[in-house]
Prior knowledge:
- The protein is α/β, with parallel strands linked by helices.
- The chain has twelve helices and 14 strands.
- The protein has a six-stranded parallel sheet with strand order 4-3-5-6-7-13, with helices on both faces. Strands 9-8-10-11-12-14 form a six-stranded mixed sheet, sandwiched between helices.
- Helix 1 (8-20) crosses helix 3 and helix 7 (177-187) packs parallel to helix 9.
- The chain is elongated.
- The model has no long low-confidence stretch (mean pLDDT 91).
Amino acid sequence: MKIKESKYKLVVNHVIKGIKEGELKKGDWIPSINEFRGIYNLSRDTVFSGINELKSRDIIDSSPGIGYYVVNTRIPSKNNIFLLFNEFNEFKEELYNSFIENVGKTDTVDLYFHNYNRKVFNSLINDSNGKYTTYIIMSGKFKGIDSLLQTINGKVFLLDHFHPELRGKYSSVAQNFEKDTYEALTSELNHILKYKRILMIQSEEKEPYERYHGLQRFCKDHGFEHSYLNSVKTKRIKQDDLFMLVNDRDLVDILKQAEKQNFTPGKEFGIISYNDTPLKEILSGGITTLSTDFREMGKTIASLINKKTIETIENPWKFNIRKSL
Length: 325
């Protein structure tokens, strides 16, 4: 169950409802501070908080010594958005910029980061509860978050990492890591057939293991050997190996090793790197990348904010074929 609406919002919503239902017109007086205190059993400070929000939104004004009155009956649609990312990098910046470009002009957005720290994640959500109308949350691999999400007083949306147990409870725009990997590899099977073994290198615990599930399924269907490694350091490259690299540090390490062995990506061995960047377009003649469309993700989540229906959307992937494959 969701907690009761933040108390000062009772004052704000009382006036907005009155305007929308025609009970309050331009120039009409709204209830006094003492009247609001009596209606909703609020403290004086809480009523003032509601009054101040109404004034900041240019809905009411005051006449000294008399009271507060309506000055604007055209209530702009406004979302106060709490946007929680796991981290900030080049890909998330692209997502953020796209989101900002597509939200309403009157909407406000506050961006936070939990950096994969569960205590910080919980604290940021608890501390922000009731202060925003909309909560967009990128939880990553954190499990058991439903009980926390249910306490949030506002609309909740999930971003980037899909949680099957939350389907139908909250709208989401997410990557399907297993499906994306499987479909992308299948779509370019002709490029991959020249390799014998595919190795996925994923060194950080925060990264989704579902990517490897997609690789396993692909290799089973098409007869490739496969392996999962935490690091490529000190690893000698075998001819006809195809590396799928998540971390850019591992990409640098494998290119250094290739130089030592006088191997060229796309000839003696292959590289697919997750998440595209401009640098990968030119590095070593071009690194093939598999990436979700972060701009599309930002645009899509912005489009869901004002919808009443709950939607579960898989964000599209892009497979950029370059010389490394």
